[in-house]
Design goal:
alpha+beta, Seminal Fluid Protein  PDC-109 (Domain B), 3 domains, 159 residues, 3 helices, four-stranded mixed beta sheet
Length: 159
């Protein structure tokens, strides 16, 4: 189908033609224009078909990606699993760090239960509990002497 502006221009050109020779020249010019237009339309149609095919392919790829990242998609499930494992690993590491945390409990009290990491003072020395214990610092391998005071007259007995 010919564009309206081209048809209007051709009508003006035909009206301005003064002789049969002018009309023949116009017809040759219009034939060349029609051929160029047909080639352009063919090229445009090919380009449009190519773009439509590419658009279909991109839509399929997008749909696939959307399925992967959907809340119940494969990718999100994998990420969720990985995050779950990472969280469990971090929680275990936190438990280990918490177990090793030092807590100053003040002066040793006989009969009290001390958790691993507890620090107490006894006879001027600072003692560290390596495991849960009710034993007396210096009389059990549950305790390690951290800082020795000059007031300790003898080495602690560690069983």
């Amino acid at each position: 189908m010919m564009p309206r502006d081209v048809m209007a221009r051709r009508d003006r050109e035909f009206a301005e033609a003064k002789s049969a020779r002018d009309v023949d020249m116009l017809q040759q010019k219009w034939l060349a224009e029609d051929q160029a237009l047909a080639e352009a339309q063919g090229s445009t149609a090919q380009a449009l078909a190519s773009l439509r095919a590419e658009n279909r392919d991109l839509r399929r790829r997008l749909a696939k990606l959307e399925r992967l990242v959907a809340p119940k998609g494969v990718l999100m499930a994998g990420i969720g699993d990985a995050l779950g494992r990472t969280r469990k690993d971090l929680e275990r590491q936190i438990e280990v760090v918490d177990a090793r945390r030092l807590k100053f409990c003040g002066v040793y009290e006989p009969g009290a239960t001390y958790e691993p990491g507890s620090l107490v003072t006894r006879s001027g020395g600072l003692w560290h509990a390596s495991k849960a214990t009710r034993e007396t610092p210096g009389a059990s391998s549950d305790w390690s002497l951290c800082v020795k005071s000059k007031s300790l007259e003898r080495e602690p007995v560690v069983a």
